[in-house]
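Curious: can you check?
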Amino acid sequence: MLSGILKRLPVRNRRFFNLGLLVAMIVTVACSGGKTEKEPRDDEPLIVTDVDSDSLSGDDVADLPLMPKEGGERVDELFDDFLYTFVRSHRIQDTRTEQGLNCDLSFMAGEYCTNLYSSQSEMGLNEDTMLSVASVERIDLREQEITSFKFHKQKGKWRLTSKEVYGFAGSDMCDFLQFYARFTTDSVFQYKSMSRSIRVTMMDPDDENQSIEGFIDREQWPTVIGEFPSGIISNIRYGQIYDGRRRMMLEKMAMGQGMSETFTFEKHGKDWKLTQFDN
């Protein structure tokens, strides 16, 4: 259906989501030759190695220990890789969290997560190996509440150092978040908040070496694209600037599948509008 609406263009270079080296790169440790399993020390870098994820249950993955292992990848280098490991290992949470701090990041362990950016260039901030401060936000659109978990990189190792809870009014994204909360719950408002013509770029279902690009009418959105992230969404702050921005890009990323969708909203006068969708 979509290929009949949009014109074909050559495939573009796509930004594939690499949170934690994907599902196939799951943390594990060898426990053979009668050796006793070893707890990771706080002063050791986290290492990930390849493992057959199909042989592990969800609980197994969550409880896998980590330790230095020759030939592995150091996950403290990029915050995304550390976070993927941190969320899924209770042992790492214990060693990398300030004492007495509740570190419930289960909202990051679902089928997908989301990030918010104000420009295309910001979408590369997660690749910055010099990053020393990052925050993970749980955004409750229904309650209009944000829980922010702040991490610092200390002596080359990421640690969860603080937690803060506040309402949308205390956020530099207040204007957009209040709009988006209503956008996802009020169907009439949602329809009015879409541009009459929405720019769409998608992979051609008939040819994986091609992409198709063009415009759809807002009436076609439910049948061509589908639903928006709603309820509880997430956001990782690597250094994005939101205050005063008139464009917001909401990226929805499938965990471990290398797939992402981006919804672009632009502010025209006092009103936010959905203007573009990229898959």
The chain has six helices and 13 strands. Helices lie at 58-63, 79-88, 90-95, 174-183, 187-192, 221-224. Residues 79-88 form the longest helix (10 residues).
